Write the structure tokens for this entry.
Amino acid sequence: MRSHRRPFRPSAYQVYATVVCGAIIGVFVRGAITSLVGGGIGVHGLLVLGPAVLLVVVLGAARFGSWQGPVSFSAADLALVLTAPIATADLVQPKLEHSLVVGALAGAAVGGVAILVVAGGPGALGAVRSVAAVVALASLSSLCVAIGWLVQSSRRSGQRIRWVSPAVVVAAGGLVAGSAVVFSRLGMWSGPWGWSIAPLAGGTGWPVALGLALTSSAVVVLWALRRAGAASIEMFAVRAGTRSALSASAWTLNYRTAALSYRAAQPARLGVRIRIGPPARPQRAVLWRDAIALARDASRVGWATLLGAGATVGALTHPGRLLPAVLAAAGLYFAASVLCEPLRVDVDYPDRSATLLTWSFARVLLAHCTLPALTLATITAGTVLVSVAIGVAGPGALVLIPSLLIGVVATAVLAAALSARRGGRVDEALLIRLLGADPSSPASWAMIVLWVAPWLILTLITLGGAITIVGHAVVHHRSVVSAGVLAVGITGAVAGTLIGVARRTTRPD
């Protein structure tokens, strides 16, 4: 097979067209970036944020490999390949090599853009550092492709990546904090994600960091090439079906089916082996099921903790500012959405709860809100206590726990539960209206957003407004008591309204 494979050689016209198009696009990109960032973002900002952002990019490449990966085959190809006497390595290696080359070119393009963003052009860095910066980011991009294949070709690696993902995000946040407070070049020497920005940041040690980046990339790429035959054809068949399902779900705005297809392509989740005995009272059956679901999938608690704690810290450290308050509201909403997964299971199979429970669906929905509310309240209250203890927030923030916390958590959880009630699907009538909307009209886009995500919009307005009101009073030394009463009244009224809406919901079809 390898001896008969014809190597790819670009024609002179393809090379000419690529160079000309790249030059034209480069001129436009340089002009746009120069007008936006002016002289650059600064070396300190690069050292603080760069390693953390690239670490998250590496994590994203690894997680992409856990359900899709850089090597893929169509369903039509697999129908022929499954019956052909061809070694898997001979099928995979050409595609893997192509992905590595494309990844390196994409990384080089990102390096060129980074030179414009950080220094305003290659003249500020010099020819040697500019070439080194492009090569370093190209090597990191190839490293990401190789890591994606290593995860794709090993089911156990996919399980481990999903298990440690919350810890990696926390480590990225720690790099930001450590680089900003302790040592500005801490992130640069933390691994390949930091070594790759060393030529951009400069300093005496950047040639050493560049050598480490190239060495680590070469080792991982060679390892990936040696494992070209490690994956099975059945794995490619599963991922081809997943890709088709995701494409169909995207066209029909059926994001619940997309989530289920994405989850089916991933290895089984690693859960904590905890035995929870059945409840003594039937009224606690839903709470018992939700506790078992969280115990079996502890990563959901980890993601909810990251989102909830990050939202709380953002609100405490930026009081009175609207954008951080809205981001905090979004974080609380998505944390509640992560915890509401057991409710989505009942929505996916509406006959299950109707058979196992004699309750109405409204009662089932509200019962599913109990454990997410308790968990999110614990996360938020714990974050406030830790923030006060380490000096991030003043002692006055403790008043938020018995006052504003209840309404905020209740609003976020109820809105997430009502959003889950929709089943992640858009009905045919609404889909026709969305497709018939005028794309040039801002009103049409506003209506589309309201139709697609009404409960998220309600949460952002309610919680964002309440958090901004309290923070504004704190910053401007106004009556915090009256602002708190107003915020509690707003969140309480919205939460009460949402409870009324939940009590009138019916079982999905």
